[in-house]
Amino acid sequence: MNAAVVVAVIAGSVSIVGWFVSNLLNARSERRRIRLTARLAHVEKQLEELYGPLAVLIYEGKASFRDLLTTLGRPHVFGADRPVPQKDLDLWLFWVDHDLMPRNAAVQQLLATKSHLIEEDDFPASFHQFVEHYNAWRVSHLRWKEEGVPYPWHSKTNWPDAFDDDVITTYRELLARHSRLIGAVARG
């Protein structure tokens, strides 16, 4: 066989193999970029629609509760050993109606409508505890307001501190993941 033909066949074969390898690598890179972009979009949705708003509500609630305690002039609202003075109870009920209950309702609404964005595979225990805290208190408070049925002026279950920790920890983890994904998508 002629040397020129052999060289042409080899060159053509190398070109064809190169083209297939290049296309294969490009397709693989594109699939990876699509997966990263989808993961980034999901994390952005989690931050924007659930964990970001929950974090703000938690930070806001902590600051507001500190303000309430400062206004009361003591480190707690209810003492186990003595009843709350009427003026302090009036202040507490004002705070409940105009600050605590509306914020808790916003948290409950987020959990009810955005639960598909929860990071875990199941509804976290602290989220369940928050729902119990809020619903027990909301119903008791509403019965008192509408029917005069007395109650102890707070929920039967305490605010779950783990709820704050779970939300803030997940929020920070999602922010870090978001940054990593942005870098990965930018690098291609």
Textual characterization of the structure:
The protein is mostly helical and 188 residues long. It contains four helices and no strands. Helix 1 (3-72) packs antiparallel against helix 2 and helix 1 (3-72) packs antiparallel against helix 4 (161-187). It starts with a helix and ends with a helix. The mean pLDDT is 90.
Features:
188 residues, mainly alpha, 0% strand, rod-shaped, 4 helices
Give a concise summary.
This protein is mostly helical.
How are the SSEs placed, and which strands pair?
Layout: H1 3-72, H2 86-113, H3 125-147, H4 161-187
Termini separation comes to 46 Å
**Cα-atom Rg, whole angstroms?**
29 Å
Major β-sheet, in short? none
What are the secondary-structure elements, in order, as H or E? HHHH
Estimated structural class: mainly alpha
Helical proportion? over 70%
Average of per-residue pLDDT values: 90
The amount of beta strand, in percent, is: under 5%
Total of helices: 4
Cα shape: rod-shaped
Care to count the β-strands? 0
Low-confidence residue ranges: none
